[in-house]
Amino acid sequence: MSDIENADLEWLANGTPRSRQFDDIYFSSEGGPEESEHVYIRGNDLETRWRKTTAGDRPFVIAELGFGTGLNFLLCHRLLDNIANANLYLHYVAFEKHPLTIADIGRAHSLWPQLKKYSTLLRQQIIDHTCGLHRFHFDSKVTLDLYFGEALTGMSDLFSERTEGVDCWFMDGFSPAKNPALWNADMMNTMWQYSKTNATASTYSVAGQTRRSLQNAGFTIDRLPGFGNKREMLVAHKKNIGLKREASQFTNPTSRPAWFKTKSARYSHRRAIIIGAGLAGCSTAYALTQKGWHVTLIESAPKIAAGASGNPQAILQPRLSAEISSQSMYYLHALLYASRQFDQIQKQTDIGWHPDGIIRTPERETRSGLWQRTALPYASQILTRLTAEQASELAGISLASDAIFLPHGGWLRPALLCQAYLDGIANDQLHLISGQSADSINHDKGYWQIINNSGVIASAPVVILCNSYRLNTFPQTSYIPLTPVRGQMTITMGNSRSSALKRPLVAGKYLCPADFAHHSIGATYQSGNTDTSVKAEDDDENIEGIGNAFPATTQLGLSAVGARASIRCNAIDYFPVVGAVPDYEDFISVFGALGRNADAQIKQHARYQPGLYLNTGHGSYGLTSCPLASEYLASLITCESIPVTHAIADSLSPARFIIRELKRQRVPVNAQKSIRNLD
Question: What is the mean pLDDT of residues 471-479?
């Protein structure tokens, strides 16, 4: 997770940064913004194209090879504001192998005071580096996907499926002679493959290799006057819609199996029903409506956030791992995404967000094995080790052991967050139905019907099930192996010692800083239990569990004054279940050969339930996991580029359970019963 190296810079006398790795400068000494305006903004005729944008053109996708200082993005953001076309939505995708540090970005941006507004917005969200894909939102009109890593690998993850294609390419890497990987035939073929018809690309380079690679890929080339002392520049166009090109071997990985590939659907009516109004349901409603959809949100309780999402305090923390995997990468990016989102929401409405980081003791890391690792698999911006003295200073209270610190963690009031999600939706985009159960779902003539004893209470082409383990009551999703988990959190009155706690502490249990003079301590974990009555012995367990974090001489003397028990939901593999719902019987039929040979190569695709999706199984990490899961799901439904890599998307997929059971020879070819009953 820490394998990305920041750019190694030297600063020239005129203030221009130069890369030591590639022996090249980042922008022209004759004027960085002026050169970028000439080559990329005017070269691609963006102002004219954006002024003509209509409602059906959403979004406009720009892809940049080489993010560098972010100058081109700042200029695009400013141009979008100046044009003020209500129909224009910008999705900006950039690939960078060696990102600049925040300090270096700030130093470069100080040269352009005219872009200060947009520079500030960018630097408030970005971090130095963490490999993989990061999604940033700048209000509802601008989305930035920033991929740290090899460009070809990133293009596969972002563009190979479910995307509407790229409208415009900024070829802004270092010169072909210094950085040939960004200018070779594989790159140009890949660009052509993922471009819309009439897409354009521009570059300051007129090198013969660049021209030939673009032309051989299928682009037509125009030479235009260059900027400053550069006589020419290139603009490429994709016009020949009949020409087919093979993408690079890196962008069509054969390792991605057929069962994880879903067919993109276009919905003429952008309406969806979401069942369940906890964190998963409310964050999904928010993500989908930000992309222009209308949502009906159905909650069986009288009000939203009635379950675990109604606890008085919740901690933003990731599930840590000693090894790099798609699961650990998901939780890392989910942590960063949620932290950025909460920062933005807190500016608009008070959700009690305290982004002060969290402290975790070795007792918490026993299961992950992280503490035993000499070298941590996380960048220092994400996680640092602390001595007991350092941890005590950060905590504000004396602690008994060394610890680790996660600066992007924090705590908030989850019920306020759920309400803020809904308040952030335009009135005409949301219809909330509370106090109504969804007893069954039925698909008829392209629409899903939600049915209870009152009859059909809602219908739409898309349904998203966010109702925890209760989705097992529907035949279409009965095979998903979900388990209810009872958890009781304890409320204690703060005192002079406990009120000194500055940040959440996670040990055997978690302890939140005082909020309205009360602490939250939690939580017990009882798998398979759905009893929500409060138990005194659970309060004792919580208080004792956090007490081990303090020296015997500085116990806090906390006692229970209240408690709340609620039910979370875990999948059998303790990982969220997010994505399209497979047609169980068709999957068994198409992929049944895996039951005889787990390595069978099957290229045929099976059916997914039309317009049916899940967002569940977040367990104890729902505050961290739900925001990114919901953005992923909304992108999947709207056929936009997804905000996670394919490896992460596949690990989230509900299809994983069917395939695992087939490979273990536990599902007969003609199975009619659910996987969860096979044990």
Answer: 96
Contact 509, 499 (CB under 8 A): no
DSSP structural state of residue 642: P
Mean pLDDT taken over the chain: 90
- Can you tell me the distance from the alpha carbon of 387 to that of 366, in angstroms, rounded to the nearest whole number? 17
567 touches 588 (CB < 8 A)? no
CA quadruple 654, 655, 658, 660: dihedral positive or negative?
Answer: negative
What pLDDT is recorded for position 521?
97
Q: What predicted TM-score, i.e. pTM, was given to this entire model?
A: 0.93
Q: ∠ CA 5-329-192 to the nearest 5 degrees?
A: 70
Lowest mean pLDDT among 22-31, 357-366, 647-656: 22-31
pLDDT in tens, 292-316: 999 999 999 999 999 999 999 999 9
CATH architecture designation of domain 268-306+416-480+573-582+610-656: 3-Layer(bba) Sandwich (3.50)
Site of tokens 């349904």: 463
Q: Of 623, 545, 554, whose CA–CA distance to 395 is shortest?
A: 554
CA distance to 192, 289, 585, 603, per residue, from 607 (Å): 30, 27, 9, 13
Do 9-248 and 358-407+483-571 come out as alike in CATH topology? Answer: no
User: To the nearest 5 percent, what fractions of the chain are helix, strand and coil?
Assistant: 35, 25, 40
* CB contact set of 484 (below 8 Å; sequence gap of 6+): 468, 469, 527, 528, 529, 530, 567, 568, 569
pLDDT in tens, 10-59: 888 887 888 887 777 777 666 689 999 999 999 999 999 999 998 777 79
Beta bridge partners, 641, equal none
User: Does 358-407+483-571 carry CATH code 3.30.9.10?
Assistant: yes
The b-or-e profile of 19-52 (16+ CB within 10 A means b, else e) is beebeebbbbeeebbebbbbbbbbbbebeebbee
What one-letter code names the amino acid at 56?
G
Is the domain 9-248 a CATH 3.40.50.300 member?
Answer: no
Q: What are phi and psi of 128, to 5 degrees?
A: -55, -55
Helix 414-423 to helix 326-348 angle (10° resolution) is 70
